[in-house]
Design a protein that fits this description.
The chain has 279 residues and is mainly alpha-helical. The chain folds into 2 domains: 7-58, no CATH class; 60-278, MetI-like (MetI-like fold), CATH 1.10.3720. 74% of the residues lie in helices and 0% in strands. The chain has helices at 7-34, 38-43, 56-63, 70-101, 105-119, 126-135, 142-165, 171-178, 183-194, 196-212, 215-220, 229-234, 244-278. The longest helix has 35 residues, at 244-278. It is globular and about 75 Å long. The two termini are 36 Å apart.
């Protein structure tokens, strides 16, 4: 049955279009500023298109030396993000599966402990963590940051995985156990594939947090060769002058890898949220 096109429908469509335009304005500012000259980026209106197409911001970001090279910083961010996400998936899934299959006081206490870990601010333990990493020689290194992010985000990973692990039916596990399969093999071949939606959710959420984090690498990677993208971006902010065209060019380049990853993993991400809500 056809429905009439009412005035209220038109109003809703206009409101949605206006909301869409409002959401796209920051991206427009980002794009046009990245292609302006340094002088025009500092003096012209933020929403005004460039009078002359100038890609010098991208050239300067890519051709910079040391910690001011976007490719080097992107590689550092990729190594730290990938290493952290892999450890979070491996350890988080095993820990969550153990908690889900061990009901009782011990399992509940472990789960509550991880939930409390999400609530507590990292700033409480920042100084002891800094001293600990420095004492074992991992301060300012990729390995140190990977271990740090793994510890910081493990409560979140376990929390997300546990909700899925609890609704995974145990029938397949019992059948495999009767056939003589070990616990490790049951987890690898049966349980972990069933946790694929949760894995996509954990990978995207933790990956975004690590990739976009500024404060933690600023403290723990200051002056090292492992500088990440957000910290490298901050190096173009000066006391007397700020190179906005270079900063916005770096922002655009930094969005490409994480958007590409999201496009590949979005199906599992959506399934993860749907499964979580259903569970």
């Amino acid at each position: 049955m056809l429905t009439k096109y009412r005035l209220s429908t038109l109003i809703r469509e206009i409101i949605l279009v206006l909301i869409g335009i409002a959401v796209l304005i920051p991206f427009w500012i980002l794009l046009v500023t990245a292609f302006k000259s340094p002088l025009e980026a500092a003096s012209s209106s933020a929403v005004a298109p460039p009078t002359v197409f100038d890609p010098s911001g991208f050239v300067q970001a890519v051709s910079g030396s040391g910690n001011r090279n976007v490719l080097v910083a992107m590689l550092n961010s990729a190594v730290i993000t990938a290493g952290s996400v892999i450890l979070l998936i491996l350890i988080g899934s095993i820990a969550a599966y153990t908690i889900a299959r061990r009901p009782g006081r011990l399992g509940n206490a472990a789960y509550i402990g991880f939930v409390v870990g999400i609530i507590l601010p990292f700033q409480l333990a920042m100084l002891p963590t800094y001293v600990a990493l420095r004492s074992i020689g991992l301060l300012g290194s990729h390995v140190g940051m990977i271990l740090l992010y793994t510890g910081l985000l493990m409560p979140l990973a376990v929390f997300l995985y546990t909700g899925f692990a609890r609704v995974v039916p145990a029938d397949y596990e019992e059948a495999a156990s009767i056939d003589g399969a070990s616990k490790f093999r049951i987890f690898v071949n049966i349980v972990f594939p069933l946790l694929a939606p949760a894995t996509g959710t954990v990978a995207i959420m933790t990956g975004l947090i690590v990739w976009n984090d500024f404060f933690t690498p600023l403290i723990f990677l200051s002056g090292s060769k492992a500088t990440t993208l957000p910290v490298m971006m901050y190096s173009f902010v000066g006391e007397n002058a700020t190179q906005w065209n270079v900063i916005f060019a770096v922002v655009i380049l930094s969005m490409i890898p994480i958007l590409t990853f999201y496009l590949f993993a979005q199906k599992k991400f959506i399934q993860g949220f749907a499964g979580g809500m259903k569970g």
